[in-house]
Amino acid sequence: MKKSILGMLILAGLIAYGFYDYYNSKNEELSPGARVDVSNRKEGIQKGQIAPDFALTDLAGNPVKLSEYRGKTVFVNFWATWCPPCRAEMPHMQKVHDKYNDKNVVFLAVNLTHTEEKPAAVHEFADNYGLTFPIVLDEEGAVSKKYQIVAYPTTYIVDKQGVIREKYQGAINDEIMEDAIKRFK
Q: Which residues form the Thioredoxin domain (predicted)?
């Protein structure tokens, strides 16, 4: 009898903690296009948080930092050449990049190089698909770990102030991308 009461108390405590955790970690909904006071925002990977900065090397060997794109809407896309949904998504990204490149919208493709069979595959892929947006190499997997990437592709929409506005797991098409640009530009 005492064991079942203790078990019920533990179960009730776990359920209460689950509700507490859910309501305290719920993503903040931000109005599209609204300016956000970033002075009191913490860094993190949830909507409404400041996107963690990172520095990686692009295909030409140049250093690229996410924070260099402040003032622009940034699609931070985590992908790999061996990933079929990533392959399907890339032409859509290129199409929207071509349309919005000179309108303060950036596509920053973070290749999960540590998962590639050979690093040269990324260069070949970019050439074959005619990709002209910035591609950076996450050779050690540190950035994908920081962003807790578990599905490929995953895309974060980061606004001009560096605040995460949206996260998509799985491939998105040009219509979804253009809708996000209209909402968060």
A: 45-185
